[in-house]
Design a protein that fits this description.
globular; alpha/beta; 10-stranded mixed sheet
């Protein structure tokens, strides 16, 4: 089973009708080279790339990099309080950490059998990273608060929520897979996510789907789809 056809369904942030896939995706600059990305399968990421030599079953450890937020001129994300941007980045990191830790040892340094996972929340073409918005490293076992519980403002910036993901060999740096996707809200006529629960549901589904597809790809049993 080709990973490109299944793994990056995790970037289809659809949960309980909360979101739908956007018609187009923008390139923020997070991935750098977008020329090798091709259209994804129905229900999966809009654009993706898989290294034909990738052997994901050979990885038993994950190095999860802090989640970053990339934004550009005119982005609604710029109007979001710094504290709320931080909480969104932290929330995605926490969810990814919690899900991937069920199947992998989470490590903090490169080495043999270590898969590096890098994720970014993006919002516009020609974006740039917000240097003060990098997710905190969350200790294993720390409780996770939903965005509804901690956010202070309205999440209008995720009227169109975009994300980019890169998986690479942590030791060699070889890129194994990349994906880009964008979601829009469906709860109201504007297409905006007007509730933090919507954002939380999307990020939760994203994380769970990635974990599930990695489980399937390495040939494990008991993989539970979200």
């Amino acid at each position: 089973m080709r990973l490109a056809a299944v793994l990056f369904l995790g970037l289809a942030l659809v949960a309980c009708g909360v979101t739908r896939q956007a018609r187009d995706v923008r390139q923020s600059g997070f991935l750098g080279d977008y020329s090798r990305l091709v259209p994804g399968p129905d229900g999966g990421a809009r654009k993706l790339y898989q290294n034909p030599s990738a052997k994901f079953a050979s990885y038993d450890k994950i190095l999860l990099e802090p989640v970053t937020i990339w934004t550009g001129e005119g982005s609604e994300m710029n109007d979001l309080a710094k504290e709320d941007r931080q909480r969104v980045a932290n929330r995605l990191f926490e969810l990814l950490h919690a899900r991937l830790a069920k199947d992998y040892a989470i490590v903090t340094a490169p080495g043999p059998g270590v898969l590096r996972v890098e994720a970014a929340i993006t919002s516009a073409e020609r974006s740039y990273p917000i240097l003060d918005t990098v997710s905190s490293i969350v200790p294993i076992g720390l409780g996770i608060s939903t965005l509804k519980a901690v956010a202070t403002g309205k999440p209008a910036f995720v009227g169109e929520a975009s994300a980019e993901l890169r998986l690479s060999d942590a030791a060699s740096g070889e890129v194994l897979a990349e994906a880009v996707d964008s979601r829009v809200g469906t709860k109201n006529p504007t297409g905006l996510f007007d509730k933090w629960e919507d954002v939380d549901a999307a990020l939760t589904y994203w994380s769970d789907r990635l974990g599930y597809k990695l489980c399937v790809e390495r040939g494990a049993t008991g993989c539970v789809a979200p």
